[in-house]
Amino acid sequence: MAGIVVAFVLALINLAKRAANPAIDVLEASGDPGESLLTDAPRGSVTGPGVVVIRLAAPLFFANGDVFSRAVKSAITSAEPGSVRHLVVDMEAVTDVDVTGAESFEALQNWLADQSVTLGFSRVRPETLDRLAQLGLLGDQTVYPTNRAALAALSPPEPTPDPH
Predict the structure, then answer these.
(1) Where does residue 162 rank: exposed (0-12), middle (13-18), buried (19+ CB within 10 A)?
(2) Which pLDDT tens digit goes with each residue over 61-91?
(3) How far apart are CA 128 and CA 97, in angstroms?
(4) How far apart are CA 150 and CA 87, in angstroms?
(5) Residue pair 101/62 in contact by the 8 Å Cβ criterion
(6) Which residues contact 129 (CB under 8 A, 6 or more apart)?
(7) Residue 50: helix, strand or coil by DSSP?
(8) What is the tens place of the pLDDT at every residue in 115-145?
């Protein structure tokens, strides 16, 4: 019986450790959630001109809220100064947000506002969207159905070639 309890406790510790350090990816320009720059991204990588799409692959809660905030700040500050104007958080894997995670995210929203970076969301599950609204995290941010839709809406238009 003692062995089962020890194994259970160790499994819980392992689960908490993994959840506290989730995969956080800056997505490639295609916006495809299967393609990401991961840790091999060259310094200053962005998803598109002026846009960073970042994916959190876990619920946002007390153990990883600060980790996520640091990753976002790093993605924005490692780009050329002033080049990032929009951040889109791909929320497809975020199944829940707790109060402490919300506090951390609110602080991140304030930091983004100070940097003149707008915030949007993509691929948000309906129940997560409700939770964001309940926690007061969903203000005037745009929610995009896909990452490609976010890139299309936020990237500057392609210059039209001169017909002459």
Answers:
(1) exposed
(2) 888 899 999 999 999 998 888 889 999 999 9
(3) 8
(4) 10
(5) yes
(6) 138, 143
(7) coil
(8) 999 999 999 999 999 999 999 998 889 999 9
Tell me if 85 sits within 8 A of 112, measured CB to CB.
Answer: no
Question: What gap in Å lies between CA 54 and CA 66, rounded to an integer?
Answer: 15
**DSSP category for residue 134:** H
DSSP strands (E only) in 42-162: 51-56, 86-90, 118-122, 142-144
**Residues present in the chain in total:** 164
> For the CA atoms of the chain, what is the radius of gyration?
18
Question: Nearest CA to 56 among 77, 85, 87, 15?
Answer: 87
Single-letter code of the amino acid located at 14:
N
Amino acid at position 9, single letter: V
Cβ atoms of 44 and 76 within 8 Å: the answer is no
Distances (CA, A) of 118 to 30, 84, 89: 20, 9, 11
